[in-house]
Design goal:
Elements lengths: L8 H18 L5 H16 L2 H39 L1 H6 L9 H19 L1 H18 L4 H19 L5 H10 L3 H33 L12 H4 L6 H5 L5 H25 L4 H23 L3 H20 L3 H8 L4 H6 L10 H10 L6 H15 L9 H15 L3 H19 L6 H7 L3 H26 L1
Helix pairs in contact: 1-2, 1-17, 2-3, 2-15, 3-6, 3-13, 3-14, 3-15, 3-21, 5-6, 5-7, 6-7, 6-13, 6-21, 7-9, 7-20, 7-21, 7-22, 8-9, 8-19, 8-20, 9-20, 9-22, 12-13, 13-14, 17-18, 18-19, 18-20, 18-22, 19-20, 20-22
């Protein structure tokens, strides 16, 4: 095998299960049992003991939960805060001015998407979803944009366009550029036309498919709760408790101004203190907890102490309800990276960098070397490395593969590097892998699996068109 990677039975079994899982997702079937079977079989191959493989199932669930706990927390807290704002009517007062500008589903789709994109450029998508979703989702629902449509807009513009370009924070282009031995500015410049093509094609196709399916009556919402997404944020309270949540009109107007101001202060703090990723999410989450406590004490008075706990409990119930089906699947795909060694020991070949990266290297080492094949291989390699759901874990490999093809074919290394980066992040960064796009799905109260299926065709069409454009740019 070229490039010093020897594939083992573990690699081939993992690849076979990936193909099987993707086929089931396309056919709208649940994959939890298949993922558990995959974990068991991989554990059996790695440990060669029944006890080790059985224990590996539980340990992989724990590993996935630890990796996802930050996202579970921010979603649960935002849901809890949003519920008390909805019950007290503050949310309605807060979004009332926006209804003058957002009057149709189309304006809501593109407006939410563009606002999400701009916010995500500065602070990455996860905290941006919490900020944008809590404020704009009720407005979008009111004018007729389905909750799933809002999730698609936030997802494609944030985790797709903004994260794949990453022009402000520059985390993604720095990783790929370093691996390809190129200046960051060169990779960023080469990515601009590709990001524009990918973003335009994907969002236009997604919007067209949404409008088509709504007209045909074939649109599937798959809400997590019984009510609409806005109602889902407050779906589990008791009516008697809700009736006691009374705030005067003056206080309601004051809080409707103060709460967005507090989140704007978070945005300013993120920019001023250079907070990003988990730190930015933590700031938003802490602010949401403070707002939840203050509004609950003001609205419920003597029952405030108990109601704070009740709202938080409802938020966590909702958060874990969304994540419950995802953890087993995430557990399987995390095995494609460092989790495998952490759980089962060093049983992979010495030169291995994880199952997924090994598969990507093997692919690059087994195809003919020319510009067109280089572009196609960069996309496929990026997409494969994105299957672990992070988007970032494999983009260094995408840069290395781009350098390999550029040297062999004398083609544009920066273009190939940018193409691999775009493929990895669009697939793994949060538009196709169900647990990676949970923030948008949970805030909108929709199934992450349905959101992944809704994104599949637009993203694949976008990748196809972008790959063709890249071939002409080489």
């Amino acid at each position: 095998m070229e490039m010093g990677i020897q594939l083992t039975a573990i690699h081939y079994v993992y690849l076979a299960f990936i193909v099987f899982i993707l086929a089931l997702l396309i056919k709208r079937r649940d994959t939890t049992m298949i993922c558990v079977a995959g974990i068991f079989l991989l554990g059996l191959l790695a440990t060669e003991t029944l006890g080790g493989s059985v224990s590996g199932i539980f340990d992989s669930f724990i590993y996935a939960t630890k990796e996802l706990i930050g996202t579970i927390m921010i979603i649960s807290i935002i849901v809890a805060m949003s519920r008390v704002l909805i019950i007290t009517g503050i949310n309605e007062t807060m979004v009332a001015p926006l209804t003058r500008f957002i009057r149709t589903p189309a304006v809501a789709f593109w407006g939410i998407g563009l606002i999400m994109m701009v916010t995500s450029f500065f602070f990455w998508p996860s905290p941006a979803v919490a900020l944008i979703g809590a404020v704009l989702l009720p407005v979008a629902l009111r004018v007729g944009l389905p909750a799933l449509g809002a999730a698609v807009a936030m997802n494609l513009f944030g985790h797709g366009i903004a994260l794949s370009g990453d022009y402000i924070i520059q985390g993604a282009p720095k990783l790929t550029a370093d691996a390809a031995g190129l200046p960051v500015n060169e990779v960023m410049a080469a990515s601009v036309p590709l990001v524009i093509v990918m973003g335009t094609v994907t969002t236009v196709v997604a919007f067209w498919m949404m409008r088509r399916d709504m007209k045909r009556g074939t649109w599937r919402e798959r809400l997590v709760a019984e009510k609409s997404a806005a109602g889902a944020l407050g779906s589990s309270g008791n009516a008697a408790g809700e009736e006691q949540a009374v705030i005067s009109p003056g206080a309601k107007r004051t809080l409707a101004i103060l709460i967005p101001f507090l989140f704007l202060a978070d945005v300013a703090a993120m920019f001023w203190l250079n907070l990003q990723g988990g730190d930015a999410t933590a700031l938003v989450g802490g602010t949401a907890v403070i707002i939840l406590i203050a509004v609950t004490l003001l609205a419920h008075r003597n029952q405030g102490l108990e109601k704070v706990t009740s709202y938080l409990s409802d938020g966590f119930v909702f958060g874990f309800k969304v994540f419950g089906p995802v953890i087993p699947i995430a557990a399987f795909f995390y095995l494609g990276d460092s989790a495998f060694t952490d759980l089962f020991g060093k049983v992979l070949p010495e030169a291995s960098h994880g199952i997924v990266n090994d598969l990507g290297v093997a692919l690059a080492g087994s195809v003919p070397l020319n510009g067109a094949v280089g572009a196609l291989t960069s996309v496929v390699t990026g997409a494969i490395t994105g299957l672990d759901g992070s988007g970032f874990s494999g983009i260094s490999l995408a840069g290395s593969i781009a350098q390999l093809f550029a040297v062999a074919t004398h083609s544009g290394a920066a273009t190939l590097t940018a193409l691999g980066q775009i493929a990895a992040i669009w697939v793994g960064g949060g538009t196709l892998i169900p647990w990676a796009l949970i923030p948008a799905a949970a805030i909108c109260g929709v199934s992450p699996f349905e959101l992944a299926r809704r994104n599949l065709k637009p993203v694949l069409i976008g990748l196809g068109v972008t790959t063709v454009v890249a071939m002409f740019l080489l």
